[in-house]
Structures are given as C-alpha cells and as structure tokens.
Amino acid sequence: MVLPSGSVDILLLKALSWGPMHGFAISRWVRERSEEALALEDAALYQGLHRLERQGAIESEWGPSENNRRARFYRLTSAGRRQLREETAEWRALAKALFQVLDARSAEA
Amino acid sequence: MKFRFPWRTRAMLASEVDEEIAFHLAARAAELEREGLEAAEARRAAAAEFGDVAATRAYCLDQDRAAEREVRWTDRLADVRQDIGLAVRRLARQPMLLATAAGTLGLGMGAAIALWTVVRQVVIKPFPWRDSERLVTLWHEIPASQVRLTPQFMALEFWRSESKTLESLEPVLPSSATLSNDGGAEIVQVKSVAETFFDFTGLQPALGRRFVPADREEGAPRVAMIGRTWWQRRYSGDPEIVGRIVQLDNKPVEIVGVLPRELDFLPGAWRGGVTQFLLPLPIRPDPDRNAVTLGRLRPGVGVASARAELRTLDARLATAQKDLLEYQTRVDDAASNQIGARNVRTLYILLGSVGVLLLIACANVAHLLLGRMISRRSERAVRSALGASRANLAWSGLLEAGVIGVAGAALGLALSFPLVRLIAANRPQELGILEALHPDPTAGIIAVVLGLVVTLLAGLLPAWRGSRAAPAELLHGGWAAGRPEGRRLREALLVTEVGLSLVLLVGAGLVTRSLWRLGQLDLGFNPGEIISAQLQLPDWRFQSPVAREAFLVQATDAVRSMAGVEAVTRASGVPPNVGVAFGELEIEGRVLGENDRESFFAYQTVEPDYFTVMRIPLIAGGTFDGRAGTDGGYVISRALADRYWPGGGAIGHRIRIGKEGRWNEILGVAGNVPGLGVGELRGALHIYRRASGGGDEADLVVRTTMSPPAFESALRQVIAGIDREVPVRGANTLMTRFRASTATQRFTGALLGGFAAFATALFAAGLFGVLNHAVSQRTREIGVRIAIGADPRRVRWLVVRQGLGAVVIGVALGLTAAWMSARILSSILFDISPRDLVTFVVAAGVTILVALAASYLPARRASRLDPTSALRSE
C-alpha cells in the first residue's frame, strides 16, 4: 500500500516519539509496526527527516549505533511533539469522517 | 543557552549526508545477509529498496544547507544583540566616560541639526509649496549694478500672455497699513494676492476659508487672512479669530482665515519678517504698481531657458514701458537669493564651522575610546588568546563607539529643538524671517546620518588599533616597562584637533576684529545722541499733501517744545537706513568714462536744518536755504564729491540721476555718513534733497537727553494729542539702529566664538587626557628620575614636551588651513583682510597658551610624585 502524501511526516514524528532513533531504525520500525503493509521508501524517509529537521520539528546528533558505528540520531523537539499531537488529531478526524461516509448503508438496505 | 557546534560548511554537510546514507545501506545489507542473502546480493537489494539515492542525497543536502543558513542568521542576530548588550554594560561601568563622550557629541550634533534646520528652511527650501522646484521669481535688473527691482503689473500681464516657458504667474503686492488697537495704532505688513494664489501654492488655510473671486470685486465686503506665526504671537493663537472684525486703515475688515505655516515666509519679505496680513488683490490693480512676481516653469523647462525667452521679449515689453530700456528681465530660482547672497554665505559658513566642530568632537571621542582600549589591553590579550579574531575585537570596539554615537545622536536631536527656538528668539533683525523657524521634519534623518558618521569617525581608529592584541605581552608583563601604546595615533588625533580648532579660532577672531572695526568706524556724527521715530500718515486720514505737511509741521513744533528735547528735524529715512536711488549719474557738460559710471546712491530728503541737528559738518557750500521741491538742488556727501571732483569744486555743477531725472545744482558738500549700513560701502555716495512736503511718512530726528523709552512714551502722548490715528514707530537712538544693522555679523561672531571656545576646550581636554595617561604609564621611570635627584622643573618639562610636538604641528597645519580657506570668509568681513596677521598670531598664541595650561596639571602631578611609592607601583 502506498502512503498518501503528507503522511510521511506524521509517521516519522510518531516513530521518534518513542525515543531518539537513526534513520535505519526508523525504517525498520515502520516496516515491523505496519507488518510490512506500509511501503515507505527509504528515499522518502530520509528526505522527510531532513525536511522535518529544517522545519525545527526534530533535531539530529551523531552517536554510536548498536554495533558501534557512527550514526545520525534524530530526536523530537518540543515543536515536533506539538506538531505530532496536532497532526494526529487531524488525521483521526479525517479518517473518522471518511469511515462515516464509507460505512454508510444505503437507505433501503 | 544551548551549546552549538561551530558553523558547518557545505562540504561538511555533504559528507554527513553521504555517511548517513552509507550507514543505512550497510546496516540494511547486513540485515539481509543475516536473513540468508549473499553479500553482493544483499547490497544490491538494500540499494533497490532505498530508491533514488542521488536525488535523496541532493534533496537532503539542500534542506540542510537552508537550515544552516537560517541558523547562521539567527546566530548572528543573537550575537549582535548580545554584543550590543555587552558594549552597553561595559560602557555603563564607566559612566563618566559615556557621559563625556555622548555629551560632547550631543552638543555638536545639536548645533549641527539646529543650523541645518535654519539652512534648509531659509536657504534650501524656503517655500515648501507644490512643485517648489519649478518656482521662479521674476525681476527687472539694472545690468550695471545688478540691482533687482520688482516688475510692474503691466509686465506680469504681458508675460502671462506671451511666455511659453512659464506655466503660470502670480503677483504678491507688498504694502503696509495701520491696524487700530485699544492703545492707538500700529503699522502692519500687508501682502495682496489673487484667489488663484492658493492653487498656485497648493496650500489650504490652517483655519477658516481662502479668498474667492468675489472678494476681489470693487465694493465687496473687506476680508483678510493672517499669517500663522503672527496669529500665534499677536492674537495668542485665538481659535475664535475667524469672523473677527479689525480696523485696518480705519476700515472694518473681517478675518476669514489663518494661513498655513508654509506661507509664513513669502518671497521678497524676509527683511520684514513673517507674514502678517494677506488681502485680496483688487480685480484691476494699478498697472504701474510693482509687485513681487512669482512664476512656475512648465515641466521640463530650466531657469536658463525661461530667462533667455523673457529677455527676447524685453524689447517688446520696453515699447509699452519706457523706463524698461535701462533694465533687463531676470529669472531666478525662487529659493535662491531670498535672503541675500551674503546671508546665504554666512549661514553656510556657520554650517561648515559646526561641521568642523563635530569633527573635533569625534577626534575627542576617539581619544577617549583609544585610552579605554589601551587601559583594557589585558582584557583584549586574554580574549585574543582565547581565540577572538581581530575582526571580533574590532567589532566590539566599533559597537562601543556605536552606542556612544546613538546616545549622542539622541541627545543632539533633543538639544536641537531648544537650540532652534534659541536661534529664532535671537535672530538678527536682517533675518527677521527666522521667527518662523520650526523643528524640521528632516532633523531625525540628519540625526541618524550624523550618528552613523560619528560612530565611524570616532570608532574606526580605536577599533582598528584595539584589535591589535598581543597575548605575548601579557606573559612578559610587557607594559610595566612603559612603552606607551597607541601614542602615534593619539598624537595624530591631537594634531587634528589642534589644527581644526585653530581654524575656528581664526574665523571667530576675524569676525570679532571685523565687528570691532565696524564699531570704531567714524560715522560722521554721534549716533548715541540722536533718537529717531517714524510717523506714518494714513491716506484715509490725510487726503492732500497740504494736510499732511500741516500735520508734520504741527507735530515737529510740538516735539520741539517737549521738555528734554534740544533740537528736532525731519527726514525720509535715517542712517543706516536711508533710501536708495538707482540710475546712472550724469554731470552736465561732462562725458563720464566707463569706469566712472555710478548708479547706486544713498538718497534722503531732509529739512535744511538736518545737518545742524545731526551735527554733520558742511564741508563746502551751503544747504537748501529757502529753495524747495524737486529742482531745489542737492547736497552731496564728501565721498561723492571726491569721486568726481577730487580737487574740490563740486559746488555749482549740475547733476542728474538717470536719463529721466531732473538736472539739479550741487549746493553743498556734507561729511560722510554711512547711509546704508556700516558694511555697505556704496552707501557713502550720498545725495540729499530738500523734502517737497506732504510725504506720507516722515522720520522725526531728535537731539535729546531722554532715554528712548521715556522719549517714546512722551512722543506718543504728544502725537495722540494732535491726532490719535497716526501711529508712531519705535523710537530708538541711531546707535541702536547701527547696532541692529550689524546684528547678522554679531550673530555670526557669537556663534563662531562659541564654536571656537568649545573646540578649544575639547582639544585641551584631549591633551590633558594624553599627558595624564602618559604620566601614569611612566610613573616608575619618573620615580627613578626624582629619586636620583632630577630637578622638578626638568620633570615638568619632560611631560609638557610630550604634547608640545603635536601642538606645534597642529598649529602649523591649522594656520595653513586657515590661510588657504581665508577666501571663504572674506565676503562677511568688513575692512579687514581674511589673512589678517594679527588675528593669526593671536589665535596661534591662544592655542599654545591653552595647550600649556592643559599640560600643567599632569606636569605638576609628575613632579610631585613620591619616589618611594612610585618605585613600588606595579
């Protein structure tokens, strides 16, 4: 399943809300969490990370990875946390509205 | 504050992106390998999963660089804010230094802004009206003497119909009227304009309404408008003024409006001061009357082409107006020449002087800052050792100058308002128009510009010098050895200060000497013993010359019998403000050569006993005796007689002024009196004629022991006893009038003197600072000298000598500069060379004396050092 545009950001923010992670870890997290259903291309993931960093939602720092290689870790900023909250609410509202329409039964049924 | 890595370059950012992507691919490949793929296969799969590596790399780098740019900007802003805060705090620790520096600059800038206000409002933009850059004034000029006369209405009508370079023309007709008030009557200045004048200026009344065409009709109800500044002064800004009826020339006139401030100054009116009454011009004015004529050029037309066009029309205009043969038309930019070329020069000289003063103030502040830099060398050394670059150090030095510059500019702006008021209140009579002076809207811009200039001038050198920090010195404990730091620079600044202040001192000295010469001038009589007062006989009151003459005779007799009056006579105008006659002088039976043509004379009608009452000696011949009228003969001044009859023998010759004039016999030669102001040498060519009787104004010339105020109130009573409707214009001794005629020079002298004194004080303070600092730095050395028995006088000399070199060089440069710029001053000097040796020598002497005085205190301190404690110091 292909992600709708704009949903990459919220996914990344959600991933980072669990704690600082490097890009590869995020990629793995998304894959596992969605049981491989969400196909988030790594290219889009990294582009999203750098975009979010520029916007100030996340910040990065170099640190040792699990097997002691130098990796770039990302972490939510307070602005990012707020953005995640707001966007989550928006997505929920959107999804709810969409489901209401999709689940509506025809009048004669 | 969050710790940040130093700024990252593009290469650093790129390598980070590369490393990040490589890490991902490697980690994914390792994962796939663990799942059973072969190494090469795993790498390929990881790359395929990733997507477009190159595009991602470019995109990420792009984002990172944008982020970096933003960070840099916010960092820089935060740094600047922090640096300014630091500079303010550092300066606040030395409040005396801050106050001295900002105060010095503030005074200089206040004076500069105030003078700028004067120059802008009087010289550069006297008429802030619609399209004022296209405003011109039109004149008839006598080519030989360049005397300008206002054209007649006839000429204005002619130009209106013929000119193609002028878009429109407007007359402003000057006259005067008597305004009756409770106590009697006063004379007011009146200007008459058409209703179109308001469209011409593009201005609206401040209160009430403007004129309408119906106001100009014959028999229309009489209306008037009044000037704004005058309304505030004469009527205390009464908001209910519109609708008030005043008695003007004994007729009721309704005030229908108050003019805007932009019309306080009307062309050709600067001597009379601000606008008082504005009346509607009659619909058909007398074509022979002269009026100030304003024109507006068509867009794109220059003054020169308008002048050329109107000159070609002169021949046709002259057929309609005969005496135009002697004149030619002249078109001037309206802003130019409004207050006379000499006054313009004076104002520019003052503005230039205040600029010089400001330079000295900058040098002084540079001194202070430099001294500060030097005393904080250890701090600089530490900062430098910690990695601060030269630019960092210079920047913080410049910021300190900036803080001082801003404080100075704010102070200067605040000071400029009272200074403008002070100038307006103490305006010389000749610049009466300064009464309308108001704070200028451009003052704020000037303050900002000056603040910036001053910051750079005063701050760059110290900042540059202060950026040279030598951490090694700190280790050596270097300065205890007493190598004076930045001394060259401080001496150069001192030289500048001394030189510039000497230029101002010479200027002030020359103007003062010139004023002294004016005061010493032989006036030909004693002006302290004579009081004059003007009587103005209103037309509506005295219909015929006979009635006027009868009144004047009666008034003269009444004054003669007043207690305390020794003698009284009548004249038209009194020195230094007699009338002027234009026209080439001719001598019957003699052809004058090109160089002997004079066409500008002081001209006065007098009674025969005028010379006796004034005690002006009659050198040859006699006076008018029984003869009267326009062909009653002339008395001429000695200067005029010597001009044409150097060996004597003028009596009996007949002369006339202009081709239209009557031949008149020379009856007598009188002693010279400066009839047109002491500085106006042409006024010495003086022609007297017997009054023909019945003029509408006359000056009573009274020899009396009374004080002017006592005489004035007695005179008012006497005149009111004869006729209540005749206004008396202020009684003053001729001495006072002569003083008023040199008021502009005294105004200039006072300002220049103040600037020079301020400048001298500044350089003295600078010198004191340098020497005092030097003594502190050399405490040990001096202590040693005293300990081994040096003579205190030698020690003092040691200190004084340090500053003397700079002072001597400064004096030499200053004298040279004053010598070279002498020509600038020559136009405002009277009877003294702008390279007057005495002035130069005295100014140089004063400078050196002040320098010695400023050196004395540090020198004395040095010679009184206690050797034991001096040796222990540091």
Count of alpha and pi helical runs of chain A: 4
Overall 3D shape of chain B:
globular
* Quaternary state of the chains: heterodimer
Low-confidence stretches of chain A: none
Beta strand count of chain A: 3
Please report the number of helical segments of chain B.
25
**Helicity of chain B, in percent?**
40-55%
Report strand % of chain A.
Answer: 5-15%
Radius of gyration of chain B: 38 Å
Per DSSP E runs of 2 or more residues, the count of β-strands of chain B stands at 23
Q: Rough shape of chain A?
A: globular
Taking all Cα atoms into account, the compactness measure Rg of chain A is: 17 Å
Low-pLDDT segments of chain B: 478-483
| Major sheet of chain A | 3 strands, antiparallel
Structural class of chain B: alpha+beta
Distance between the termini of chain A: 31 Å
Our estimate of the beta-strand percent of chain B is: 15-25%
Measured between the Cα atoms of the first and last residue of chain B, the distance is 39 Å
Give the helix level of chain A as a range of percent: 55-70%
Largest interface: A-B, 22 and 25 residues
What structural category do the secondary elements of chain A indicate? alpha+beta
